[in-house]
Amino acid sequence: VVTIAGPQRTGKSFLANRLLNRMNGFAIGPSTVPCTKGIWIWSQPIEVGDMMLLIMDTEGLFSVCILSFTIDRNATTDAKILAISLLLSTILVYNS
Question: Sorting pLDDT into bands at 50, 70 and 90, what band is 66?
């Protein structure tokens, strides 16, 4: 399992799409509104050499909630996302 984590708006979903060799896998956008909420996992592993990789994309750390609904967004949320990512990952890419 390869997880990509890091601060908001640093290209985590773009990098995940590049690993998948596609541009329409994980949602990406040109604005400051976050596309990824929580942890997203690609539905099928990809083959890289003699390995099978499962790609996980995470919500940006230190992000702010600017959507119309209320979410309790704080450092605890970031810690939970990062902790789950670390526990599930074989490789963690911290994209900053």
Answer: low
